[in-house]
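Hi W.,

Here's what went into the run:
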Amino acid sequence: MPLLYFEDFTIGRSFDCGTSPVTRDEVMEFAREFDPQPHHLDEEAAKRSILGGLAASGWHTCAMTMRMFAGGVLSLADAQGGIGSPEGRWMKPVRPGDVLSMQAEVIAARPAHSKPFGFVTFACKVSSQKEQVALILMTPIMGRRP
Amino acid sequence: MYWEDVEIGTRRALGSYTFTEEEIVRFARKYDPQPFHIDRQAAERSHFGGIIASGWHTAAIWMKLAIADRSRPGNSSPLLRAGVSPGYEDLRWLKPVRPGMTLTYSSQVVGKTELKSRRDVAIVLTRNEAHDADGALVFVFTGKGLVQRRPG
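Here's what came out:
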């Protein structure tokens, strides 16, 4: 049975979503398939770029955020898909060797009109060991309590 | 081509991509392991009625096609000189993406903004879309790309 429903996601409630280690292999594997730019694939070219060294694709950061969000929130809830991400900020480069951690805080919740679900927006704050590296908003659909 | 040369309204067709079930499941197992992305039977019981792609997979394919487009001969896209982005806004997944579906992606320049913090680069805003074979909008977001400014 799902544990958490739309009604449980009150504004301000926060979820610790665990960690995600960033490996060089995974950064390059994601970049080769989806974002083959030198600053994600080539150490030397990355050093000369605005990022100052090898960094994960921003979309890879979103995907890793999703993995933590799925583990820390969606798997505990009656989650029925997502309608979008109202905003994403890639604030600092995400480097191989970083260990990302994530807090997801409810910032908005609205029931769907005459439907048995609602939309909950979470601010996912992604940090490395040093600092916040990204802010990704996520709006999943959550079933209402039966 | 520099930021100064970018014309608002310029639109590029980025090409099409067909999603296979194998790829959808492989991406989702790694990054978005919800039952309706990775488990055919659970997906059939869900309100989607079958496997659907992770929305982040749909977004990552936009990036893949955009990079391929930038390396096409004769493309003078300003985003050739970009590649780094501070983020995006208003990213929406409007329809489920199912195995076998082909999406056609595009990118249009919709705005330009300067940065207070630096003179060497500035931001180009793009509206990026993916449509299904019937022409319905499936995926959309506003992208922000850093583009080099004309020196001097």
